[in-house]
Amino acid sequence: MIALLRRRWQALSPALRRYHRASALPCVVFVALAAVHEAVSRQPGVSASLRLVVALAPVACLAWLFTLYLRFLRDCDELERRIELGALAWAAGIVLHVCMACMLLLDAGVASWQAKDVAAGAALLTLLSYALVRARLHRRYA
Amino acid sequence: MNNRLRELRDARGWSQAALAEQLDVSRQTVNALETGKYDPSLPLAFRIARLFGEPIESIFHED
């Protein structure tokens, strides 16, 4: 199992290996901050300003991760960049359509979803569609 | 677009990984170029031509 993982790791491009190594810390910090947010937001006596800071801290961590991703996009080779940009474009297009449909359905009173659920769904859909399209494009050029 | 990349690489006894390292691209890119699944950008085509010491048009040609 470890040998298989090592082979897969070696098969990655140097830019992607660097990105994965660099993104490990922000990922761990994000999970920790999200857990803190979950705990703090349910405490009754916490001030609004503290709740605001704790709620936005994971977003700052995501921005850190996004900066690393942009650096990876700059450093990767042209085929890898083509795959990444293709996956991002597909993900953006799919989520844009779904968000527009949700907005119109909510506006028409046909649906009554919570804003939090819609936002979480849009974030998950973005990640899922990016991952699926990226995997498909990688297979195409394999 | 067709190319003679595999032929040129084989003639020098290089692996795909070795060629990828010299061109500063991933092995996947070299494989995609050799199988005709991907056409290189002009800067990469120039790098390939320079590495093999041949003009671009002798390495890459239309179908």
Structural write-up:
The complex is a heterodimer of chains A (142) and B (63). With 142 residues, chain A is mainly alpha-helical. Chain A contains 5 helices and no strands. In chain A, helix 2 packs antiparallel against helix 3. The model of chain A has no long low-confidence stretch (mean pLDDT 92). Helices cover 62% and strands 6% of the residues of chain B. Chain B is built from 5 helices and 2 strands, in the order βαααααβ. A two-stranded antiparallel sheet of chain B has the order 1-2. With 63 residues, chain B is mainly α. Chains A and B meet through helix 4 of A and helix 3 of B.
Short description:
The complex is a heterodimer of chains A (142) and B (63). Chain A is mainly alpha-helical. Chain A has two domains: 1-76; 77-142.
- How would a crystallographer describe the biggest sheet of chain B? 2 strands, antiparallel
Number of domains of chain A: 2
Q: Structural class per helix/strand content of chain A?
A: mainly alpha
Distance between the termini of chain A: 23 Å
- How many β-strand stretches of chain B? 2
> For the largest beta sheet of chain B, what order do the strands appear in spatially?
1-2
Q: Structural class, judged by helices and strands of chain B?
A: mainly alpha
Residue runs with pLDDT of under 50 for 5 or more positions of chain B: none
Beta content of chain A: under 5%
Give the largest chain-chain interface (CB within 8 Å). Answer: A-B, 13 and 13 residues
Number of helices of chain A: 5
- How many distinct helices of chain B? 5
Report the helical percentage of chain B. Answer: 55-70%
List low-pLDDT spans of chain A: none
